[in-house]
Amino acid sequence: MNIFVCLKQVPDTETKIKLNGDNSGIDTAGIKWIVSPYDELAVEEALRLREKNPGSTVTVMSAGPVRVVEAIRTALAMGADNGVHVEVPETADTFLTAKALAAAIKKEGNLDILFTGKEAIDDGASQVSQLIAEHLGLPCVTVVLNAEYGAGSVKVKREIEGGAFESIELPMPCLIAAQKGLNEPRYASLPNIMKAKKKEVKSVKLADLGVAETEQKIRFKNFQLPPPKQAGKKIPGDPATQAKELARLLHEEAKVV
Amino acid sequence: MAKVFIIAEHRDGKLKKSTFELLSASAAAGNETHAVILGDSVAEAAKELGAYGASKVHTIQDPALKFYTSESYVAALAPFLKAQSPDVVLAAHSPTGRDFMPRLAVRLDTGLASDCTSLTFAGNGITVKRPVYAGKAMVEVEFLGAGPKMATVRPNSLGAPKMDAAKTAEIVSASASLGNLKTKVTDIAKSNSGRPDVTEAPIVVSGGRSLKSAENFKIIEELADSIGAAVGASRAAVDAGYRPHRDQVGQTGKVVSPALYIACGISGAIQHLAGMRSSKVIVAINNDAEAPIFQVADYGIVGDLFQVVPLLKQELVKLKEH
């Protein structure tokens, strides 16, 4: 099987976000970059599927500036076979990113299944998976908690609102976007980390893919930090007094109960 | 004035509040507000949309639309919307809206802003703002192309919808040719908790690691149930196995924006604050007076949650009885 994974490199969740000088983006100095957690699930699922289907290959792709090669190497260290870095500018939107990734996948050859994370934890858009699926004409299910792979088809469990689940069947080739719970991603072993450093990561430019930088559809501007919140009232007294006063404030002052 | 199309969302004919929020916001801005509702039998639900501000409701009915799939929705909506030439297309940033809107945007060859928390209508366009890095920063989204401006909007972020039972909408049916669909929904397993979804609920009561066990979450559940709230949890509580991941609030869980968020025994790690700081009113109950959660809380109680939470429930029940 030809198994593909698209992943994104994002700032670690503990990152304190600072803006750049003209508020056109964030200050990336000193940021610790990680593979977006849902994308790690995608890598793991790809590796497990390969293990069940000997002779399969797992190709990992990421779009972004040159730093994202590090994220591809993380996936190679987990056990992926091939890495492809699709060079897009730091400011690329979801549409340009998806178009470039879809074109790069097409260039690599036939795909049986593509795994992604259900969203990246930086912009949290949950767009790119579906956009790639649309460009490649693939059926796609997002927020997948469980998947059973049959001959040419997949049965998945998708999380919807209120703790409910949908059971969905779809044929391969297809795209599956992972939700936490799909699997437990493995840690890379030290020998695999060393091996991954030596693996070649192919680099592809937008021009090689016939995609123009101007194919952006949206742009983020006027970045702002959220207004600092005024620390509110601390309610004094014994627990019974505190509970009573809080209930009163929520009812009379905040009017939310 | 913009020509705005809002994709209504429902489960088994029961409309979502997020749909009413979108209709109400669009109508209040004086737009030509259309609703589109898809399903196998939506005639009854369609009648409710006028009261919230739709001037025209388009129903697209087909047996294949009984269960939502992105494939069937996009197959039905893309040709319909192309023919209607909207200025703006909106849906909730819900498990449904966030799933199909990107594919629809490609078909309409236009841009989509996801998870917006502010919409401003001006002329035939919109200005949208959204949180990024799970609320650690805000951005304005600029649409670069000439196509319709598309956005998914976070539930609970546009204010309470206004309802006027005297208002009705013209209801028209549109046809759909869905073609050969590949994805098939075989079953929907509903939750049996009866509680609202954590991203949709007007009130969320969350617990952290200080709850010390899954069983102890009972006091959180009882408080939540007494006020019709959803139950949330911090990453620490989920990692400890006290709650399922679907309840997790934070950067690697759900981002919520309720009218009231009650954090019990949650210290307020940066990744948790990111997921709930846009809540309108925040209450923190924690025994550590120095916990960062108090810096974002409107009302704080330094105390033992095992004492305070059951007492708070009693007080809120008393309020309701009066």
Structural key phrases:
heterodimer, A: about 260 residues, alpha/beta, 9-stranded mixed sheet, B: about 325 residues, 5-stranded parallel sheet, 8 helices, 18 strands, about 30% strand
Low-confidence segments of chain A, given as residue ranges, are: none
What value does the average pLDDT of chain B take?
96
Principal-axis shape of chain B: elongated
SS field, number of helical segments of chain A:
7
Category by helix and strand content of chain A: alpha/beta
* Helix amount of chain B: 25-40%
Radius of gyration of chain B: 21 Å
The gist of it:
The complex is a heterodimer of chains A (257) and B (322). By secondary structure, chain A is α/β, with parallel strands linked by helices.
Provide an overview of this structure.
The complex is a heterodimer of chains A (257) and B (322). With 257 residues, chain A is an alpha/beta fold. Chain A is built from 7 helices and 13 strands. In chain A, helix 2 (69-78) packs across helix 5. The N and C termini of chain A lie far apart (56 Å). The model of chain A has no long low-confidence stretch (mean pLDDT 96). Chain B is elongated. By secondary structure, chain B is of the alpha/beta class. Classes of the chains: A alpha/beta (257), B alpha/beta (322).
